[in-house]
Write a structure and sequence with these properties.
Largest sheet: 2 strands, antiparallel
Biased composition (Basic and acidic residues): 224-241
Strand order of the largest sheet: 1-2
Order of helices and strands: HHHHHHHHHHHHHEEH
Distance between the termini: 162 Å
Radius of gyration: 46 Å
Biased composition (Acidic residues): 242-268, 287-298
Helix content: 55-70%
Protein name: BSD domain-containing protein
Low-confidence stretches: 1-5, 221-230, 243-250, 270-289
Mean pLDDT: 75
Biased composition (Polar residues): 269-281
Region (Disordered): 224-298
Structural class: mainly alpha
Length: 317
């Protein structure tokens, strides 16, 4: 009977954890005793416990880099190389897909324009049906690179780890690509160039067919975490601005007009004569109580008499 039949993994794991806990306790006690006996300052303690400011800064940098890679990985995996979020160009998607799935079966797709490392001779296994790079294929690939011009940052500074999510989706969508990858000779040494060349040709097809290359490999994915934080701050700022009460102070002209109107109201209410000036014009406000109403009536009677006299002379003629 094998000794595996008498082996209890749970009991062994429990004893191992118990031993580990005791070792940690002893280590802490020993460190405490050493610290109490020796004149150790805080800086030395930080270094001995790997918690110095330099190490902490290095750990923070590593965390930031991992956060960046995760953001870029999610961004790249959001679209297959032939897809687009531009509704006006969706008609080009099927044509791009067919072209990319055709070129994923050709050896030239993976061998140029970016060459293998100097210490690597072959891209594919000796029994592979895919062809290795030739002088002619390298020259043709360089012309394609010149045609593309400057590459987007995420494609030019190619990071294989950042493309892992996208590659997993491609294996499910393109069987020919998966078959080509399976024929690599030394995957660890050649796969970065394999994928960089492949995605370059995907970018070239997008460029030739009329789809945006930057939509896949632009730097937006690298700034995703920062942009989300910026959007949250913008929303909070907008809410604060909505709660601000707006007040308007009248300018000098409006104040002068308001003063004149108030002055006119005072004149009307009091019934006294006054002179108000506005924009260089003089206005005289006359009270009806000033002057003699009887004199005005007599003047009107005399005018009526003269008019009647004139009419009578005209009739006599």
């Amino acid at each position: 009977m094998s000794w595996f039949s008498n082996f209890n993994a749970s009991d062994a794991l429990g004893k191992l954890n118990e031993i580990s806990s005791k070792v940690q306790e002893v280590s802490k006690e020993a460190a405490s005793k050493v610290q109490s006996k020796l004149p150790l300052d805080d800086e030395l303690v930080k270094k001995l416990t790997l918690r110095s400011d330099e190490l902490q800064a290095e750990h923070d940098l590593i965390d930031a880099q991992e956060t960046r890679k995760e953001a870029v990985r999610d961004y790249l995996a959001s679209l297959l190389p032939w897809e687009t979020k531009d509704e006006a160009r969706e008609i080009l998607v099927e044509e791009c897909r067919e072209a990319m799935q055709t070129m994923s079966k050709e050896g030239d797709t993976f061998t140029g324009p970016f060459p293998l490392p100097e210490n690597v001779e072959r891209m594919f296994a000796e029994d592979s049906e895919l062809s290795e790079a030739t002088e002619e294929s390298q020259a043709a690939a360089k012309k394609k690179l010149e045609k593309m011009g400057a590459l987007p940052q995420l494609l030019d500074d190619f990071d294989l780890d950042a493309h892992v999510g996208l590659i997993e989706k491609l294996f499910k969508a393109d069987k020919g690509l998966a078959d080509s990858y399976a024929q690599l000779d030394s995957a660890g040494k050649t796969e970065r160039i394999f994928w960089k060349n492949y995605f370059f040709h995907c970018a070239l097809i997008r460029y030739e067919k009329g789809l945006s290359v930057e939509e896949i490999w632009a730097v937006e994915g690298e700034q995703k975490a920062d942009s989300e934080e910026s959007n949250e701050k913008s929303v909070e700022k907008a809410k604060d601005e909505e709660s601000v009460e707006l007040t308007f102070e009248p300018d000098d002209d409006e104040a002068e007009i308001e003063s004149i109107l108030n002055e006119d109201d005072d004149i009307t209410d009091t019934g006294n004569s006054s002179l108000a000036k506005s924009s260089g014009s003089d206005y005289e406000i006359v009270d009806k109580d000033d002057g003699d109403d009887d004199d005005v009536g007599e003047d009107l009677d005399e005018l009526d008499a003269e008019i009647a006299k004139e009419l009578a002379e005209i009739d006599d003629l």
